[in-house]
């Protein structure tokens, strides 16, 4: 429901404000452009997504995914208590976390999707606590080395593009902690409301 | 040198995985193509969610409401220690990665990469994700309709990231 409210709100606000501010024609054109851009984006992403899902399958069969997951289990067990016993899902979540840390956003998304599909398979159409946690953790960036931003700073004439790393880690750390805490607290509240 | 290392992360990862798997006598190519095949199905499932999201995002950007909101929010941000120049970045960040990178790059170039505004913008970009895109992709591919508290919790993390970015720049650079 949340997405329905947000989506309807976004569209309605765009139309009303666009008309009021004299940007009506621009809004009309943007609606068509947006829909076309979405399909283009998916097609552009498809190659990389397929590649990384393929690499993940190789990692799984070679036992690499399992090793990674054993390494991260102490931490991930706390975040995803419902899937502690589910080895396959934990493997996918671990791979997703590792790719995020390495800044391989293109790889992290397909790996996370694998985990999300497995989590959703257990509860039809309703997001479980673990799936919400997975999404929140992926919306809060946990990248160790933000290469894109560093490249932008370098291009702008910065001599030490990586001197922001400690600040990025601090901000990311705060954001992930707040996200996880919010998810854990809201999980309780949502259960009570039922 | 650093740049080359970052560029090589992806090919090195793929090569290392393939070599390790060969050592374990895995049919690497068969595994790769099977996984890639699954990937294609996933992408098809994401398209509807992306069409919905991007249509709304493009409309919102074209309407000019984000700029208006920015002007409205600027005084509040100043009070919370966030440079008001970053307000545009803050509003665009959760909905569009490309637009956010554009706005951030402009800030970094205009104010200089070593200015407080430039640094704050860089840290904001580095410590957040395109929240709504992520939500659309994950729930879209999983076929989940009831997202429960995922959206509000994710937005909490975003707000925290923006406030923390301004704070972290002050702490680290004094």
Note down, in words, how this protein is organized:
The complex is a heterodimer of chains A (194) and B (174). Chain A is an all-alpha fold and 194 residues long. Chain A folds into two domains: 26-123, no CATH class; 140-194. Chain A contains eight helices and no strands. Chain A has helices at 2-20, 24-61, 64-79, 87-102, 105-122, 129-139, 147-155, 165-193. The mean pLDDT of chain A is 87. With 174 residues, chain B is mainly alpha-helical. Chain B has one domain. Helix content of chain B is 81%, strand content 0%. Chain B has eight helices and no strands. In chain B, helix 2 (28-63) packs across helix 7 (131-142), helix 5 packs antiparallel against helix 6 and helix 6 (116-126) runs antiparallel to helix 8. Chain B is globular and about 60 Å long. The mean pLDDT of chain B is 89. Chains A and B meet through helix 1, helix 2, helix 5, helix 6 and helix 7 of A and helix 1, helix 2, helix 5, helix 6 and helix 7 of B.
Q: Keywords, please?
A:
heterodimer, A: 194 residues, mainly alpha, 2 domains, 8 helices, 80% helix, 0% strand, B: 174 residues
């Amino acid at each position: 429901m949340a997405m329905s409210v947000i989506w309807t709100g976004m569209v309605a606000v765009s139309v009303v404000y666009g008309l009021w501010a004299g940007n009506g024609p621009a809004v009309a054109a943007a609606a068509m452009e947006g829909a076309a851009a979405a399909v283009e984006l998916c097609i552009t992403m498809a190659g990389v997504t397929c590649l990384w899902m393929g690499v993940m399958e190789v990692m799984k069969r070679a036992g690499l995914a399992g090793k990674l997951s054993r390494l991260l289990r102490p931490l991930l067990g706390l975040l995803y208590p419902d899937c502690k016993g589910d080895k396959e899902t934990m493997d996918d979540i671990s791979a997703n976390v590792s790719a995020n840390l390495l800044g391989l956003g293109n790889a992290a998304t397909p790996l996370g999707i694998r985990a999300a599909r497995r989590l959703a398979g257990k509860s039809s159409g309703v997001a479980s606590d673990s799936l919400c946690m997975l999404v929140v953790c992926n919306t809060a960036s946990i990248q160790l080395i933000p290469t894109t931003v560093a490249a932008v700073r370098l291009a702008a004439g910065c001599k030490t593009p990586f001197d922001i790393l400690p600040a990025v880690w601090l901000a990311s750390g705060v954001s992930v902690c707040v996200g996880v805490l919010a998810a854990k607290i809201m999980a309780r509240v949502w259960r009570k409301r039922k | 040198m650093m740049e080359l290392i970052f560029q090589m992360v992806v090919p090195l990862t793929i090569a290392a995985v393939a070599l390790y798997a060969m050592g374990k006598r895995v049919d690497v190519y068969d595994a790769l193509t099977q996984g890639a095949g699954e990937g294609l199905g996933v992408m098809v499932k994401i398209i509807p969610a992306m069409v919905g999201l991007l249509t709304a995002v493009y409309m919102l950007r074209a309407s000019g409401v984000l700029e208006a909101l920015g002007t409205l929010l600027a005084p509040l941000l100043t009070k919370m220690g966030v440079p008001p120049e970053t307000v545009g970045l803050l509003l665009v960040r959760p909905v569009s990665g490309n637009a956010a990178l554009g706005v951030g790059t402009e800030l970094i170039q205009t104010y200089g990469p070593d200015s407080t505004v430039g640094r704050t913008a860089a840290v904001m970009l580095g410590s957040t994700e395109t929240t709504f895109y992520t939500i659309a992709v994950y729930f879209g591919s999983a076929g989940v309709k009831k997202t429960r508290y995922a959206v509000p919790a994710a937005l909490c993390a975003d707000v925290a990231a923006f406030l923390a970015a301004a704070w972290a720049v002050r702490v680290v650079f004094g």
